[in-house]
Amino acid sequence: MSTSAAVVTALTFVWLGMVFAISFLEAPLKFRAPGVTLPIGLGIGRLVFRGLNVAEVVWATAILVAVVLGSWPGVATPIAAGVAIATLAIQLVAVRPALTKRSDAVLAGHEGPRSSAHLVYVAFEVIKVAALIWLGAAVLVSAT
């Protein structure tokens, strides 16, 4: 396995694990804990997702560099990496601001109508997870 393939494999599966742990475990479970109100849960979620997104940008950047510098048979690895990175970019640029606006309103005491931005974010998380699984598998297959 080349250095680029090893880097992409490691970062891909770390990134995938972080998304699974935070988006699909921590996020829904925190609201089930005793005493966690919606404002407290949103406050915690904002901090946790801000940290996750910073880490994701670091992993995505490192993966992009490794993919650009590496040599890949076929196009599966570059395309899968592109899908994962593009999905993250869409989440950060298009969806996250709507979530922040909604959580700002709730934290200020203005409940208002529910936003569909959360469901859009979750849909992009599912796409990102699929792309990361595809990327990890593509690199492992190309390394054999």
UniProtKB/TrEMBL annotation:
Highest taxon listed in the record's lineage: Bacteria
Annotated transmembrane regions: 56-73, 79-99, 119-141
Keywords: Membrane, Transmembrane, Transmembrane helix
Keyword Transmembrane among record annotations: yes
Entry protein name: DUF4149 domain-containing protein
Organism of provenance: Gordonia namibiensis NBRC 108229
Source taxonomy: Bacteria, Bacillati, Actinomycetota, Actinomycetes, Mycobacteriales
